[in-house]
Design a protein that fits this description.
The protein is an alpha/beta fold. The chain has 6 helices and 11 strands. Strands 2-3-7-10-6-5-4-9-8 form a 9-stranded mixed beta sheet. Strands 1-11 form a two-stranded antiparallel sheet. β2, α2 and β3 form a beta-alpha-beta unit. The longest helix is centred in the N-terminal third of the chain and has 40 residues. The radius of gyration is 24 Å and the shape is elongated.
């Protein structure tokens, strides 16, 4: 009769199987999220505002309200006009590639005329990979890519998005994830804490989405809001399938390596 025992090899395989299941579930959820984004974009394009007509953010057209959820704003186009940049609020999201080039997304908060605050992805800028040394220092210190003008006299179009900018975080150390103004991912709570330090006397009313600029701003940044296609969805489903296969292989080896045939009696 064959019995079974746990040994280091079996435990390793079981751990690999658990990792595979977690990553498969994560890829599956990413696929479903992007499917929802594509469906919402199609719906907004078919029943959206008339061409050339947008609501004005932060003014009489569309003022801040606690009832406006991220879902209700997602992938809708607005005109950003009036208000002023909070220049000291610059955040650079690292490791964002564009056409094969490494770079960052440049985010800056803007205070609208009604006193509400929105985070605007002003565009993409080139940056060599790395979060240490002279390459990263200007971004850590936020000494580059300031807004061209402090007051938003000229309007420009933006598209509201829920977060589509997250990258896998290999650390839980805040110091590794956010070094000065150079961040790995946008963190809403950390961003709110930053604004609280910059505006200690104000009650913060922050829009629950990121506004991606779609109009050239003359500051050298490249505007390229996310464009999702069905291929993006299928890619995640494919990755999920691969992780499921890895899980099954790991479970097979865990079963195989744990089997032990009893030694016959002398």
């Amino acid at each position: 009769m064959t019995d079974y025992r746990l040994n280091p090899a079996v435990l390793f395989c079981l751990g690999l199987a658990i990792l595979g299941l977690v990553l498969a579930q994560w890829q599956w959820s990413r696929a479903q999220f992007k499917e929802q984004q594509i469906e919402r974009a199609a719906a907004n394009s078919s029943v959206g505002l008339a061409p050339g007509v947008q609501s004005v953010l932060g003014g009489p057209g569309l003022g801040w309200s606690q009832n406006q959820s991220a879902d209700s704003l997602d992938q809708k186009t607005f005109l950003l006009q009036g208000g002023e940049w909070i220049a000291a609020s610059k955040i650079f999201l690292d490791n964002r590639a564009l056409n094969g080039r490494a770079g960052v997304h440049v985010l800056t908060a803007v205070r609208f005329e009604d006193g509400s605050i929105g985070w605007v992805n002003r565009g993409w800028a080139p940056k060599q990979p790395g979060s240490q040394g002279p390459v990263a220092l200007p971004f850590i210190q936020a000494s580059v890519h300031a807004p061209r003008q402090a007051i938003l006299d000229e309007g420009f179009e933006v598209v509201a998005y829920q977060s589509l900018m997250r990258r896998v975080e290999l650390s839980e150390n805040d110091g590794a994830l956010r070094q000065g103004a150079l961040w790995q991912n946008f963190d809403a709570k950390a961003a709110e804490d930053l604004l609280a330090k910059l505006l200690p006397q104000e009650t913060l009313r922050i829009w629950p989405v990121i506004f991606w600029s779609t109009s050239p701003s003359g500051d050298g940044l490249v505007q390229q809001p996310p464009r999702l296609a069905q291929d993006d969805v299928q890619k995640h489903y494919g990755y999920a399938f691969q992780w499921v296969l890895l899980t099954l292989v790991a479970l097979f080896f865990a079963w195989k390596l744990g089997r032990r045939n009893p030694t016959p009696d002398a």
